[in-house]
Fold this sequence. Notes:
- There is one protein chain.
- The protein contains eleven helices and 21 strands.
- It is of the alpha/beta class.
- It has two domains: 35-291, TIM Barrel (Alpha-Beta Barrel), CATH 3.20.20.150; 305-477, Exo-inulinase, domain 1 (Jelly Rolls, Sandwich).
- The strands form three sheets. The protein has an eight-stranded parallel barrel, surrounded by four helices. Strands 9, 11, 12, 14, 17, 18, 19 and 21 form an eight-stranded antiparallel β-sheet that branches.
- Helix 8 (205-211) packs parallel to helix 9.
- It is elongated, with a radius of gyration of 24 Å.
- The two termini are 35 Å apart.
Amino acid sequence: MYNVKALLVVILLSIGTYVCAGDIPTDFHPATDVYDGWRLGTQAWTFNRFTFYEAVDKTASLGLDWIEAYPHGQKLSEEKPDIIFGHEMPEEIKQEVKQKLKDAGVRLVNYGVANLPNDEKQCRKAFDFAKEMGIETIVAEPPEEAFDLVERLCEEYQIRVAIHNHPKPSHYWNPDMVLKACEGRSKLIGACADTGHWVRSGINPVEALKKLEGRIISLHFKDISEFGKREAHDVIWGTGVGDVKAMLAELHRQNFEGVFSIEYEHNWEKSLPEIRKSVEYFNKIASELKPTGWRDLLAEDLSNCTYKPRSWTMDDGVLTRKGGGNIWTNEKFGDFILDLEFKVDKGSNSGVFIRTGDIADFVQTGIEVQIHDTTDGSPRGACGAIYDCLAPSKKAVKQPGEWNHYTITCKANKIYVVLNGEQIIDMDLDLWTEPHKNPDGSPNKFNTAYKDMLRMGHIGFQDHGDAVWFRNIKIKPLCK
Length: 480
């Protein structure tokens, strides 16, 4: 589903705390996971009261790049409620799903719990689907007699099968049974460790992870309210009996790399705030273990910002303009990758200011990446422009009311902007050699030539008097 170039972005942006010159992908949206080698996403079962497309949108709203789909019963969309997501979908629907995922910036990496019987024709349907959709791992609970077939197909397709554990008395509830199934088998066969079901079954999840060392492919990650009770429910990570911190420490010790699928089976229709807090807890712990350098730009309470009281609010991860002026980071940034989403109303105007030297004179001391539903009337005022200096190479903004995705990269004299998967700006500041003049001879309003602008300053979000919203605002500083 994703080409080699796109996958390289994920790898490059996960190497070390900082990325240096020459290593910066500038024409894709990066993955923003905080731990080098861990990918945190959702299991669509978390949102089984909703359609698959709604599950994708909810995953995106959490700032997560990964999703695991399930094959048994989820309606595709409100518009097509008769289509059930799974490997039996018509070909045209599969292509539609690919486009939906691309538009949302979410990647389908796992699929399960799927049925893999001792029937080659039936199994091939699941493997063919996984190959077509770019799925890495099929999560399943195959019968023991099916493993010769499953192993052969894993090797043929180079797709992994992760054995899932439902609670006691299911066949694989005990990790010993998973180990038995894996014994002597290809490394493409391993475990999908459902940490919550272990707790429900009376198994210490940390000890189970230790037992499965070397065979863990992915996880259905949970924290649970009570130990040893099948009816125990999911809780915000770090508040239950699962000892999330110890589980993450153990996986770090094992040098585990792979996907954590959030499977939150509680408060089904209103679980997003609890899941968001779980993500925050996970990121706090994970970023202390092996950081990629990605972090939230703004504190949840906006305590690291300068703004007029009540002029901006942060509620459930969404920064909203209320009126009264811009909001600025207290910290200054020079070379960085800034990743965020924004939404505007029809006719709305705003902007992202970078490297701003004086917030009291932000127009003349900062560089604005324009936000607009279309344009303010000129090419250099279109959404994605470096305002009044360089027009975007193409129109990539979505319709008013839809979330847009920006990645803004600053490295020395270079600025790159990716909007909704399209690189629209490749700018060399050193070509702007005169005040009030662009390289093509057209005028601009700036008193300082951009080659002489400060290469470090505050980041700000503009109050232009119009409605604007931001979410999932993340930054990765780059090395000098």
